[in-house]
C-alpha cells in the first residue's frame, strides 16, 4: 500500500520556485517549498508505505545497501547544494521524514528561532574540509635506520632490531602527524568563522597509505574562499612531509545543528 | 521603493564534488537534528557501523577487479 511522507532536505530562507524547479530528490521526485512565516522547508514526497522505499522496514534495509545509500546521499546533497547556492540553508540529516506538510509547518513554528539563528550563522558562508595524513614512516626526517648488526645477517636479533626500528619510525610519524594536525587546525580556525574537528576517517575507507590525523571542517565566508585556499597552500609548503587535502566549498553541513529544546 | 538588502554572495560552479565518505560523515553525523514525532529518523550511531562495513566491502570489491 502506498502512503506518502514528507522528506526534508533543508530549512532555508524563502527560495524561488525557479531554483527548486530544476532539482530532483532522493526518489527522483520534484522538490517543493513548505512555507511558514519567514522560513521554508525544502521537501519532496516519498512513499513511506509498507511497499515503499521509505517505509520503515524497507528504509532500514536500503540504508544497508551501499549502492542505494550512495544514490540517496548524492541526491540529498544535490538538493541541499542547489538550495544552499541560492539562499542560506540549514541541511537536514539523511532520511528525515515527516507525516505531512502540516507536520513540517508545525516544526517550523516550534523551532523557528533556532532555525533563524542557524540560517544567520551560515549566511554567505560555506564549509571546507581539510585533512592531514601522517608522513610515511620511511620518509625524510626519520633516521631510525639501524646500524648494520654485528651478528649474522637475518639472525633473530637483527630481525627484532629492524622490527623495533620500524615501530619507532611509525610512532614518530604519528606523533609528527598529531603535532601538524594541531597547528593546521589552529591556523585554519583563525581564518574561519567556525571550525570543528570531525572524527578521523578509518584508513581502510580513505585508502590512504598513512593514517589521517586531522579531519577538519571550516566555515568560511564565501568571498574569502581564496584567502582560505591560500592559507592551506601556505601550510602545505610548511609541512611538506604530511599530505594535506582540501575540499569544498560545500553546504554548511557540520555547522548547523538545531536540537529540540 | 525600498532597496533590498545586499544578497549574500552566491557560490559559483556546478554541484560541489564531495567524496562519499565525506558526504556520509556529514549526512549521518551532522546537519539539523529533528526529533520528536518524526515518522522516521535515523540514529546516527547504528549507521556509522553500517557505513564502515558497507564501504570496506565495496572498496575491497573494487580492489579485486
From TrEMBL, chain A:
Family of the protein in this entry: Belongs to the gas vesicle GvpF/GvpL family.
GO biological process, alphabetically ordered: gas vesicle organization
Organism: Jiangella ureilytica
One family name in Pfam for this protein: GvpL_GvpF
Subcellular localization: Gas vesicle
GO CC term, one of those recorded: gas vesicle
Superkingdom as given in the UniProt entry: Bacteria
InterPro entries: GvpL/GvpF
Keywords: Gas vesicle
Record protein name field: GvpL/GvpF family gas vesicle protein
